[in-house]
Predict the structure.
Amino acid sequence: MSRKRAPHHEEHADETWLVPYADLLTLLLALFIVLFAMGKTDEKKMGQMGRSFNIAFGGGGTTMFPFDHLAPQLVPGENPAATSNKDKPNVFEVTPSSPPAGTAAVQAALRETVQLIQLKEAVDRYIKLHGLVGQLDAQSTEDGVRLRIKDSALFESGQAVLRAESQTLAADIAKLLSGLPQQIVVAGHTDNVPINTYLYPSNWELSGARAINFMRFLLSQEPSLKPENFSAIGYGEFRPIGVNTTAEGRSKNRRVEVWIIRMQKPAS
């Protein structure tokens, strides 16, 4: 008696490759949709692109500005307008005015962002070249670029006269600032150790004198620097960046800061 053969089952091809293939098609579709949307550029998208560019290269997010009453509210072709501190809290959130809507304004804001990035990179190269790490620092923010100089790199303790050996550094900083159209604020800071001399009855006078003397020296070195774009302010010990209970913290607090303030921000 012959055995019946079991029916032959045809083997099916492995179809697991369909899953990644479908994912790939989905990603390609999403890519084409994005490219199509970018081709239909409007002012709102340009503003979003500009804002993203600014955040990516400028430190990101909203920052707190240390001297908001001096921050210029500028659009191209206008003079700086004085801002009011009336009814404002002790620390202000920066709200620079937006440029007029339009692609040209967004492009101008992007050009300024690139310019400020190049300035920071130039300062960083200078720091490395001259071994000034810890003495000079550059930081990009959404508001512009901040240069921070340790007081010992510029002044003797308790003095506001620029040291002779520090004048080369100050002259080089003036060259780096040459040609910039932005408003520039020089701010002096001290630690909380009291001072009471004939010239400087308090840290207010010392920090203010240091800011003014440094600013005047910068202007004397580069004829292209416009005095109307400069201002100086002394904060005394009231804007610390370190604790005043340690020598290291007090050393951090004794500084001069140079703020190059962004003129525009990308349109919303």
